[in-house]
Design brief:
7-stranded parallel sheet, Rossmann fold, 7 strands, alpha/beta, about 240 residues, 9 helices
């Protein structure tokens, strides 16, 4: 039996990369899925590829009014949320000494403010025992040079999960964090040279980067009833990069 049969799932940042792989995995496991993204063309292409059980909505997770409009669509079409994946995020590199106010505002607006309001605005729709999954990063514990601001934003995500886990009894949800390491997404592969890719793979004890589907498999476990007693935890899917 499909492990997410009859569940309603939301995946922010679900039009590309890990978010898209997660939405596809959820669909394959029987969920009705709503995805968001900031680019209309990417959202429409993702929804078309994923099929009728997936609805795509253009939404910037850092803008609370856009989240409100998105959740109205979810309410009208599905009435509830059983699984919420706060995955929308941005990473901008800059050497220390060249960090700008605009970079800080952009990264924290999406990764921190966006995560907060993604959950807060969804509270009225969350079903009993809903599973909330936040996308963290191994950068929070092992940041690479130039990604200190991004790492700080993901460390904040981990702190939010710890605090929100204490609210589980009052609000009826459980919350966990999936922290990927380097993953072979289109966005990453377009940004780095083959030489940089080889170096990144060599730094991972398993000798390779993750595939998006491997991250999605972990998120699917946390979305399912098999993880019903897991709350406040962080799961690293990084091939051992930040563990040893």
């Amino acid at each position: 039996m499909a492990v997410l049969a009859d569940k309603v799932a939301v995946v922010t940042g679900g039009s590309t990369g890990i978010g898209f792989a997660t939405a596809r995995a959820f669909r394959d496991e029987g969920a009705t899925v709503f995805i968001t993204g900031r680019r209309k063309d990417a959202v429409e292409a993702a929804a078309a590829e994923l099929g009728a059980s997936v609805t795509g909505v253009v939404c910037d997770a850092s803008v609370p009014s856009e989240l409100d409009a998105f959740y109205r669509i979810v309410r009208d079409r599905a009435g509830r949320i059983d699984v919420l994946v706060a995955n929308a995020g941005v990473g901008i590199a800059a050497p220390f000494g060249e960090v700008t106010e605009e970079l800080i505002d952009s990264v924290f607006a999406t990764n921190v403010k966006g995560t907060i309001f993604t959950l807060q605005q969804a509270l009225p729709l969350l079903s009993d025992s809903a599973s909330v999954i936040l996308t963290g990063s191994t950068a929070a514990t092992r940041p690479n040079p130039g990604l200190e601001v991004y790492a700080a934003s993901k460390a904040a995500v981990r702190a939010l999960a710890r605090g929100w886990a204490l609210s589980a009894r009052a609000h009826g949800f459980r919350v966990n964090v999936v922290s990927p390491g380097g993953t072979r997404t289109g966005g990453l592969l377009d940004l780095i040279t083959p030489e940089m890719l080889e170096q990144a793979e060599a730094a991972v004890p398993l000798g390779r980067l993750a595939e998006p589907e491997e991250i999605a498999a972990l998120t699917t476990f946390l979305a399912s009833d098999a993880s019903s007693y897991v709350n406040g935890a962080e799961f690293h899917a990084d091939g051992g990069y930040a563990q040893v």
